[in-house]
Amino acid sequence: MSEHGTALGGTAEAVWRLRSRGCWQEAAELLRPSAAHSPTAALSRAELLIEQCLFTAEHWEPAEDALRLAEARVNGTAQRAAASCARGFLAYVASVLGPRDRLDEAQAALGRTSAMLPPAAPGRPLLDFRRGLVAENLLHDPGAAWIAYRRAHDGAAEHGDQLLRSYTWQHLASLALTAGDRERAQEGFRASLRLREELGFTVGVAPALAALADVSTPGEAARLRAEAARLVQALGGVPVWLARRLRALPTPGASSDGRIEDQIPDGIS
What we know:
The protein is an all-alpha fold. The protein has a domain of 96 residues: Alpha Horseshoe (Serine Threonine Protein Phosphatase 5, Tetratricopeptide repeat). It has 13 helices and no strands. α9 packs antiparallel against α10. The longest helix has 21 residues. It starts with 11 loop residues before the first helix and ends in a 22-residue tail after the last helix. The relative contact order is 0.09.
């Protein structure tokens, strides 16, 4: 999710095109030569491979290796904070989708990041968002999650980070739906979908469609979920957790309350 130099120089557009279609390994390969000597490239490459873990629930070792390389390359407070933030996010993703609980590691790394970043730092919105993820999905504290997401949402707007804002819209909407505010949830899910379509973040469109379906009329919900399923199939089955949810849909005529349930927290991306 990080946009701190998702790529460098002339490779930026190529990396974005690959990333947006779920081709994280190919995008990471474009950054490999620069990552050997550039801390910024190393951090960007690590974030790409961590995002791959988020959407595929595998490929943990390449992400760990890339992050260790980035941690060894960084210099200066801002870069150390970015590496620590990435470490906390990888621990979070591994806790939710991976083989073991790494909550303590996630909290410690994000806490270190917070200590390094002043309130107005460019990296603060991403940190706030990731702290919201931990609060929502690991600590099960929706109040703390809402505060963190709200700070991230406002900060992303100030820094012009529209991709991060698509995530904050999604998670604020999910909390609104849990609280019973269907109208606010619809507003947030629609905004998230609109931003992802405008940005061309294709791999993130299917989760946004599925989320919007949860607050739509039955006919519209069926259309949105069918569109999400087509996108997931076209992208090779990612996000894997959404593919599982969509396969768990009841057959036509079966009773359903309109929501798809799974073991994976709603709105993870």
